[in-house]
C-alpha cells in the first residue's frame, strides 16, 4: 500500500466516524482554500500486540521517521511524533496508554479486550483503521474505564483508527489564523474544545492549535445496550519558524494535553454544546 492509499482509506474511515470533518473540509474548499494535513493521531494500549512499538513498523514502512517522545503523566500516556517521507504528507502523533498505572480492575478489563486480538490483523497497515479488534465491552466496563482514563474508555469502544486529522492553517490564504478557522467552524454550528483556551500554544512555542469537540455516534455495547458516545474530532494547526528559519516540526506537550480532551464528554465545553441542542 502506498502512502496516498493509506491516507485515503484512513480518511474514509475517519469521516464515517466524524461526518463533521467532511463538512468542515468541504466548507473550506468552498471558500477556495486548499486542504493539507498537518498531522493525524492514533491512540493505543501498551498491551497485547497493538503497543506503540507494534504499530510503529507500519509507519516506518511508509517512510516515516521518529522525531521525539512526549510524556503525559497525569493522563498516563506516552507518545511519539513522526516525520513524513515528503512535506506534502501529514506528520503522525502516536500515543499509548500506560496500562500498568491503572487499577487492577481497569487492567483486567483491558486485558480481556486485547486478549481477543487476532495476530494476523495486526501485521498489515490497515490495522490503523481496523476499529475495535475485540467485542464491544459492556457499558458498565466502559464507565469503569472512564472513571480512571477517558482515553481508555474511548479506545475500548471506538478502537484503532485516526482519532483526528489536522488541517494545516499554514496552507490557508483567507483563513490564515487558527482563530479565523475556529470562527468559521463555529459558524457551521459546531462546538470548539475550549479546555486550556480555544487556542493552545502560541508563536513563542512555535505551534498554535485548536480543535472541535468530537462528533458523536451511537455504539452498541455488550448486551445490545446502545449509547451515544464521542468519536473523532478535527484539529487546526499553525506552525512557526525556528531560529534557523525552518518550520517547527514537533508537538507541544502542554497543548497536546488539552487537545486530548476533545473527546472527553466531561469537558465543560462539551456540556455547553449538549445543553444547547
Ligand atoms: C491526541 C492529542 C494530541 C496534538 O496535536 O497535540 C494531539 C489525541 O487526542 O489522541 O493530537
Ligand atoms: Ni493533534
Output the keywords.
single chain; 277 residues; alpha+beta; two-stranded antiparallel ribbon; 9 helices; 34% helix; globular; binds 2-oxoadipic acid
Concise structural overview:
By secondary structure, the chain is an alpha+beta fold.
Report the sheet-strand fraction.
Answer: 15-25%
Could you say what the CATH topology is called?
A: 2,3-Dihydroxybiphenyl 1,2-Dioxygenase, domain 1
Question: Using DSSP, what is the number of strands?
Answer: 10
> Spans of 5+ residues with little confidence (pLDDT < 50)?
none
Strand order of the largest sheet: 2-3-4-1-5-10-7-6
- Portion of residues in helices? 25-40%
- Please state the CA-atom Rg, rounded to the nearest Å: 18 Å
Gross CATH architecture: Roll
Element-by-element helix/strand order: HHEHEEEHHHEHEEEEEHH
Q: Please give the alpha-carbon distance between the first and last residues.
A: 42 Å
Average pLDDT score: 96
Q: Count every helix, treating DSSP H or I runs of 4 or more residues as helices.
A: 9
Q: What's the structural domain tally?
A: 1
Task: Please give a structural write-up.
The chain is of the alpha+beta class. The chain has one domain: Roll (2,3-Dihydroxybiphenyl 1,2-Dioxygenase, domain 1), CATH 3.10.180. Helices cover 34% and strands 23% of the residues. It is built from 9 helices and 10 strands. It has helices at 3-17, 19-30, 52-61, 104-114, 139-148, 150-158, 178-187, 253-259, 268-276, and strands at residues 37-45, 65-72, 77-83, 91-97, 164-168, 200-202, 207-211, 216-221, 225-230, 233-239. The strands form 2 sheets. An 8-stranded mixed β-sheet has the order 2-3-4-1-5-10-7-6, with helices on both faces. A two-stranded antiparallel sheet has the order 8-9. The longest helix is centred in the N-terminal third of the chain and has 15 residues, at 3-17. It is globular. The termini are far apart. The mean pLDDT is 96. It binds 2-oxoadipic acid (OOG) and nickel (II) ion. 2-oxoadipic acid (OOG) binds next to strand 1, strand 4 and helix 8. One of its GO terms (molecular function) is dioxygenase activity. It comes from Modicisalibacter ilicicola DSM 19980.
